[in-house]
């Protein structure tokens, strides 16, 4: 599996900047060193019977102190690794994910250290860890599945921060991807009939991607989607003229970058086994017969998914203005028909 690039949110960028702060890094590592030394010194005092009031708990306290000292050592190593990762040249979103993964591994190692020191031997520790994992697996099925979902999102990259996606019944722009959940800024939904943001945030567990299809409207290789606009005219209209006017007007509203993606789409199709699709012109204009004996004109074009509502409005206004300016060429269906 290949690791995909991911843009970073302002919060994630701030977390990476903190790792670049030399003074804060030295202060934190110094705190870990002091903690480790304090644990080791206290352990020797325990062995010298300086804490007789604890009775028979000398051995337990000694193990806890050595586990704590070793844990501080692991935290120091983890902090150094995180700092080196933050200095990398990869995308900041990917750097943040690697830092989060390092922290997760650190947490697991520290738990294993304490379990090991509180048991008589490594075999008992392994059995204890297995039993604990089994119990936690039953009790925390959804969080564990969500954590695995986070690994899948990071490694396979079905979506990244900034993408417009649909997962199950949720539609939105991805604003944050955490260990256990993903946050979307909702578009459309039950408050809106257009593709504009509704203003609500949707937070769903990452495990949801294993149970539902994931629709990504912002694929990196082809970040556009197809839209269509339809309206009705009479049989007496000049259909060839209407087709030319609608296509020309639509092209006038689209920017050059969007037009260039038509060739990108041809290239993508040529790389797949789907070889029976031939895109000869753009945009498409199709005609259909309506059940009320009108001709339905369907304009099909590509657009940035986050600009679809505004682009649709611009095209409708421009097309109607052009057609109304030539009533001898086209006639619309009467109101109420």
Question: What does it look like?
Answer:
α1 crosses α4 (92-117), α2 (22-47) runs antiparallel to α3 and α4 (92-117) packs across α5 (122-139). The protein has helices at residues 10-20, 22-47, 58-86, 92-117, 122-139, 141-156, 239-253, 256-270, 308-324; strands at 164-167, 170-177, 181-187, 197-205, 214-216, 225-233, 284-289, 295-303. The model is unreliable at 1-5 (pLDDT under 50). It has a five-stranded antiparallel β-sheet with strand order 4-3-2-1-5. The protein is built from nine helices and eight strands. It is of the alpha+beta class. 51% of the residues lie in helices and 16% in strands. β1 (164-167) and β2 (170-177) form a beta hairpin. It has three domains: 10-139, no CATH class; 156-216, Roll (SH3 type barrels), CATH 2.30.30.60; 225-324, Alpha-Beta Plaits, CATH 3.30.70. Residues 143-218 form the Mechanosensitive ion channel MscS domain. The chain crosses the membrane at residues 29-48, 60-81, 93-117, 129-154. This is Mechanosensitive ion channel. Pfam families: MS_channel_2nd. It is found in: Membrane.
End-to-end distance: 56 Å
Number of strands: 8
What best-fitting shape do the alpha-carbon axes yield?
Answer: elongated
Tally of helical runs: 9
Write down the secondary-structure element order.
HHHHHHEEEEEEHHEEH
- Uncertain residue segments: 1-5
Estimate the mean pLDDT confidence.
Answer: 78
Quaternary state of this entry equals single chain
Main sheet attributes: strand count, strand direction, barrel closure: 5 strands, antiparallel
Number of domains: 3
From the helix content, strand content and strand pairing, which structural class follows? alpha+beta
The share of residues in extended strands comes to: 15-25%
Helix content: 40-55%
Major sheet: arrangement of strands: 4-3-2-1-5
Radius of gyration: 31 Å
């Amino acid at each position: 599996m290949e690791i995909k690039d991911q843009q970073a949110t302002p919060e994630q960028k701030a977390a990476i900047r903190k790792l670049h702060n030399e003074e804060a890094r030295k202060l934190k590592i110094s705190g870990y060193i002091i903690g480790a030394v304090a644990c080791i010194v206290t352990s020797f005092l325990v062995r010298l019977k300086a804490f007789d009031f604890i009775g028979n708990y000398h051995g337990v306290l000694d193990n806890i102190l050595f586990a704590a000292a070793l844990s501080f050592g692991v935290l120091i190593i983890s902090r150094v690794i995180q700092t080196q990762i933050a200095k990398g040249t990869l995308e900041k979103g990917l750097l943040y994910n690697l830092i989060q993964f390092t922290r997760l591994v650190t947490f697991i190692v520290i738990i294993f250290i304490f379990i090991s020191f509180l048991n008589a031997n490594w075999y008992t520790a392994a059995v204890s860890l297995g039993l604990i994992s089994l119990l936690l697996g039953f009790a925390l099925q959804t969080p564990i599945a969500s954590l695995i979902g986070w690994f899948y999102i990071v490694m396979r990259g079905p979506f990244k921060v900034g993408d417009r996606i649909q997962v199950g019944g949720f539609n939105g722009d991805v604003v944050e991807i955490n260990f256990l959940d993903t946050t979307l800024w909702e578009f459309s939904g039950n408050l809106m009939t257009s593709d504009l943001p509704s203003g609500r945030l949707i937070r769903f567990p990452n495990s949801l991607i294993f149970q539902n299809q994931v629709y990504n409207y912002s694929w990196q290789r082809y970040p556009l989607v197809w839209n269509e606009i339809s309206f009705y005219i009479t049989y007496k209209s000049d259909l060839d003229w209407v087709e030319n006017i609608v296509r020309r007007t639509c092209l006038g509203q689209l920017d050059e970058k969007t037009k260039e993606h038509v060739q990108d789409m041809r290239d993508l199709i040529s790389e797949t086994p789907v070889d029976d699709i031939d895109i000869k012109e753009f945009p498409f204009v199709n005609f259909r017969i309506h059940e009320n004996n009108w001709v339905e004109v369907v304009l099909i074009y590509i657009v940035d998914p986050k600009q679809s509502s505004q682009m649709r409005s611009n095209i409708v206004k421009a097309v109607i203005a052009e057609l109304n300016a030539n009533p001898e060429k086209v006639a619309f269906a009467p109101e109420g028909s």
